[in-house]
Amino acid sequence: MISIISPAKNMRNLKIDNIKPKMYGESRFFTNETKEIINELKKLTPWDIQSIMKVNEKIAFQSYAYFQDFNFDEEGVCGLLAYDGLVFKNIKAEEFTSEDFDFANNHVRILDAFYGIVNPLDGVLPYRLEMQYKININDKNLYKFWEDKLYKKLYSEDKVIINLASEEYAKAVRGFLDKDDIFIDIDFKIHKDGKLKTMATYAKMARGQMIKYIIENKIDNPEDLKDFTFNGYKFDHNLSTNKKFVFIRQD
């Protein structure tokens, strides 16, 4: 069982004693593809970046510096520690043991527009790139550039994929699914005013907490996810199917 999550826009330089990030070539899946992408990104001016990414001038210049200074020989930060968003804040990887990291490295994958797929122990350098950005690599947008590579790599490693990623990244895999592929969506909803709603902030927190739950409890069977609870969310048997596990919180 492999669980997939999305990256975060913001990054951090968080390191832990005795947890050493792997360098390029040690476990990185798509080094050649990343090199193609960075070569194109280095051609962009700060004003190109500001327009394409819809960011302010400060972030545009910071991203420009990331691209220009990118060096494959730098160590970087472990993937599970490098991103700084709600999902990752709730994973709390800084509290993990070395055994937790070893399990995570075999059972969690971060889908990524820049790196393709990031292992929790892969060394990640700062960058800013989302799958939906209108960047052309060899005259292809990022979805066309990656094509079915992410899908093929995931299913070469395991037959069961647990989707805790946003749809922006999940569809880079979903579009290639075969009818026999086991791809289980996890959906967190709140029951409010007689309706079921997805509250993005709470859902992101719950995704991170589920990854934490999977890693700390060494879960490798989807059925065991049904016991997960967090912040009022509980598994709902009536709304769930074998392809979608729905967790409901009463508000």
Structure description:
The longest helix has 17 residues, at 200-216. The two termini are 32 Å apart. The chain has 10 helices and 10 strands. By secondary structure, the protein is of the alpha/beta class. Helix 2 (46-53) crosses helix 3 (57-69). The chain has one domain (2-250).
In short:
Helices cover 36% and strands 17% of the residues.
| pLDDT < 50 runs, ≥5 residues | none
Order of helices and strands: EHHHEHHHEEEHHEHEEHEE
Structural class: alpha/beta
Which percent range describes the beta-strand content?
A: 15-25%
Overall mean pLDDT? 93
How many domain modules?
Answer: 1
Specify Rg, calculated over alpha carbons.
Answer: 18 Å
Q: Report the major sheet.
A: 8 strands, mixed
Topology:
Blueprint (H helix, E strand, L loop, with lengths): L1 E4 L25 H11 L4 H8 L3 H13 L7 E2 H4 L3 H6 L6 H10 E5 L3 E3 L4 E2 L17 H5 L2 H9 L2 E4 L3 H8 L7 E11 L2 E3 L2 H17 L17 E2 L8 E7 L1
Parallel strand pairs: 1-3, 1-6, 6-7, 7-10
Antiparallel strand pairs: 2-5, 3-4, 7-8, 9-10
Keywords for this entry:
10 helices, globular, two-stranded antiparallel ribbon, alpha/beta, 8-stranded mixed sheet, 10 strands, single chain, 251 residues
